[in-house]
Amino acid sequence: MEISWNDKDPIYRQLHGRLVEMILEGVYQDGDALPSVRQISADHRINPITVSKAFQLLVDDGVVEKKRGLGMYVLNGARQKLAQDERRMFLREEWPRILEKIQRLDLSAESLLLEGEIK
User: Which of 52-56, 82-86, 107-111 has the lowest mean pLDDT?
Assistant: First the structure.
């Protein structure tokens, strides 16, 4: 698991975001075990409490469950739930800014698609 840490977000949120990406990408699928707190902590040289906070966010999201003594496991339907949540957040938060910029630059859907093909 590669993570490029930034200074603007707490590490536990960045780790949570990377784990969400990995579930969405199919790296971790329904029923799969996530790496242990110790493993992630050692691999990335971060505090185990930080890793636990990231895992707790996944539990709060309803996409993983803790099996006592066994670890954290991806719940059935986690990918679909995360994709739905990500779409909703994109449409509510990111898309309005993108649309505003498209309109400000007087771009059309055709020109955007054409530009995308050129590169």
Answer: 107-111
